[in-house]
Amino acid sequence: MARRAAPPGAGPAFYSGAPTRGQISDPDESSISAFLREEIFSPEKLPGNVSIVTGLVVFFGGIAAMRTWGELMIPA
Q1: In contact, 25 and 19? CB cutoff 8 Å
Q2: Do 58 and 64 contact (CB within 8 A), yes or no?
């Protein structure tokens, strides 16, 4: 039995009309809000974001520690 193609622009037959997980149906969402939602607060990207924040905290914490207690490392 031959399969006929759907007419152009028909779209999927299983469309439910509801937004899928991770998508919102607000057409007026700004690009900044979309970036924050998709890249920063997305559960799939949480481990990478935590890794970046941890690295930044260690880096700036080291700078603060050296500025605070750096003289203690110089022999008298």
Answers
A1: yes
A2: no
| pTM of the model as a whole | 0.57
Phi-psi region of 41 (alpha: psi -120 to 50; beta: other; left: phi over 0): alpha
Q: How far apart are CA 17 and CA 4, in angstroms?
A: 25
pLDDT in tens, 12-65: 666 555 555 655 667 888 999 989 989 999 999 999 999 999 999 999 999 999
**Which amino acid, residue 76?**
A
How far is Cα 57 from Cα 62, in angstroms, rounded to an integer? Answer: 8
Residues 39, 34: Cα–Cα separation, whole Å: 8
Residue 53 has which token pair? 């924040």
